[in-house]
């Protein structure tokens, strides 16, 4: 059972009573009559062949309060797209699969590229952005949930708890971030959140001084969670990063657009395990190494927009402060693990911290060397202003693909 403590400036919705799932789903069915709900699933084709997605589809087939499921399919050939349509057939809801690498959506992407409005790089951010464009085009949802497709411990209660805060018409929340304990197989996971984000935020506070933005990010129990929900009007004016800074970037955009009392976080799972990224200490373009650089840059960019001035010496101070704080956290996590009978490899934790410290400096250098870098994909408001027909084109392309191959 979770505690009831409200830490920070964002409302935390706990799992205090182990409420029966059926009771929550009854309410969600009632909400769906006036507040239709859609689920977005950004997926790689390889995840269809993995151990998690089959169970996710099986669990979702038992959900009857969703009006639609929108699946963004990346890295799929024509034959793989056809297999994906068959794979998702067990879903009992209306579903749409965006074949992001198909000729129809690629043609739309080329038009957007010509106007400087398309995502600059492939990845989850690009996938999510096109899925949200389709949600706007479909105009059939007032509340949307999004979660990853590699969750090994998935059951449908995760979705119910994730979407409830934005689906309940009696609540005033525009956005909900999911959180959970990253404990599985007798180990504490979540290295990037534990060993990079939290100590880096604390280091930035110590180095730069008081910051409402840093207090805001520090209020989220698991800021890198890939699970969040929102009311549909959030989509129009949000700018999504195309790199690993997606989750931090989304939180930053919500901080810019909404008052804190319109945002919340919810405990959505007792256990959570998914595909783990390699550390990739020798290759800054892969794994947790690239992730740590992108996330650090996302934080630096947001602070710069708030008026913080960075230079090389600032980043050296941040790195040194971070390193000391992160090492102290390792001892804290080790003691927590021991008390709960879990395993924690101190050597592996310190190797991760050493790499993250190095990458904080790399991210700082990249930030200073590329002041005109544009990591954000334009908002849909901007895109539809420049190309008024683009949402209709996306919807028509998705429906034509499915009609041709299903």
For the largest beta-sheet, the strand count, sense and barrel status come to:
8 strands, mixed
Structural class: alpha/beta
Order of helices and strands: EHEHHEHEHHEHEEEHHEEHEHHHEHH
Which stretches are low in confidence, meaning pLDDT under 50 for 5 or more residues running?
none
> How much β-strand is present in the residues?
5-15%
How many separate helices?
15
In angstroms, what is the radius of gyration? 21 Å
Number of strands: 12
What is the terminal-to-terminal distance? 45 Å
Keywords: Transferase
Organism: Bermanella marisrubri
GO molecular function: transferase activity
InterPro entries: Nucleotide-diphossugar_trans (IPR029044)
What's this model, at a glance?
GO terms for molecular function: transferase activity. With 406 residues, the chain is of the alpha/beta class. The chain has 15 helices and 12 strands.
Overview of this protein structure:
The protein is of the alpha/beta class and 406 residues long. The chain is 50% helix and 13% strand. The chain contains 15 helices and twelve strands. It has helices at residues 21-32, 45-48, 53-60, 78-87, 103-114, 124-138, 157-167, 191-208, 212-218, 246-257, 287-305, 312-339, 346-369, 380-386, 390-405; strands spanning 11-13, 37-44, 66-74, 95-99, 143-146, 175-180, 183-184, 187-188, 228-231, 240-241, 263-269, 376-377. The chain has an eight-stranded mixed beta sheet with strand order 1-11-6-9-5-2-3-4, with helices on both faces. Strand 7 and strand 8 (187-188) form a beta hairpin. The chain starts with 10 loop residues before the first strand and ends with a helix. Keywords: Transferase. It comes from Bermanella marisrubri.
């Amino acid at each position: 059972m979770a505690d009831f403590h409200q830490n920070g400036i964002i409302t935390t919705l706990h799992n205090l009573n182990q409420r029966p799932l059926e009771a929550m789903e009854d309410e969600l069915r009632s909400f769906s009559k006036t507040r239709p709900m859609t689920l977005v699933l950004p997926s790689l084709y390889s995840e269809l062949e993995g151990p998690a997605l089959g169970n996710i589809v099986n669990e979702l087939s038992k959900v009857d309060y969703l009006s639609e499921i929108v699946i963004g399919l990346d890295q799929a050939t024509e034959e793989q797209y056809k297999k994906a349509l068959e794979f998702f057939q067990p879903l009992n809801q209306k579903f749409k699969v965006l074949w992001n690498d198909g000729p129809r959506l690629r043609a739309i992407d080329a038009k957007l590229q010509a106007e400087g409005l398309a995502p600059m790089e492939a990845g989850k951010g690009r996938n999510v952005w096109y899925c949200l464009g389709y949600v706007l085009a479909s105009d059939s949802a007032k509340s949307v949930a999004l979660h990853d497709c590699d969750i090994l411990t998935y059951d449908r209660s995760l979705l119910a708890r994730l979407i409830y805060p934005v689906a309940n018409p009696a609540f005033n929340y525009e956005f909900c971030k999911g959180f959970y304990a990253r404990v599985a197989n007798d180990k504490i996971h979540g290295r990037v959140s534990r060993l990079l984000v939290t100590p880096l935020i604390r280091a930035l506070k110590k180095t730069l001084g008081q910051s409402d933005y840093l207090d805001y990010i520090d209020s989220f129990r698991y800021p890198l969670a890939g699970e969040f929900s929102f009311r549909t009007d959030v989509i129009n004016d949000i700018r999504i990063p195309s790199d690993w800074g997606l989750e931090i970037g989304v939180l930053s955009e919500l901080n810019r657009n909404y008052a804190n009392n319109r945002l919340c976080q919810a405990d959505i799972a007792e256990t959570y395990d998914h595909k783990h990224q390699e550390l990739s200490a020798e290759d800054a373009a892969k794994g947790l190494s690239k992730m740590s650089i992108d996330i650090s840059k996302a934080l630096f960019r947001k602070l710069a927009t708030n008026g913080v001035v960075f230079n090389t010496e600032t980043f050296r101070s941040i790195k040194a402060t971070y390193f000391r704080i992160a090492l102290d956290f390792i001892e804290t996590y080790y003691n927590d693990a021991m008390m709960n009978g879990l395993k924690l490899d101190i050597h592996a934790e310190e190797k991760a911290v050493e790499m993250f410290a190095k990458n904080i400096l790399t991210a700082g250098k990249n930030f200073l060397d590329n002041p005109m870098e544009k990591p954000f994909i334009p908002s849909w408001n901007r895109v539809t202003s420049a190309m008024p027909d683009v949402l209709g084109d996306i919807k028509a392309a998705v429906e034509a693909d499915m009609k041709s191959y299903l």
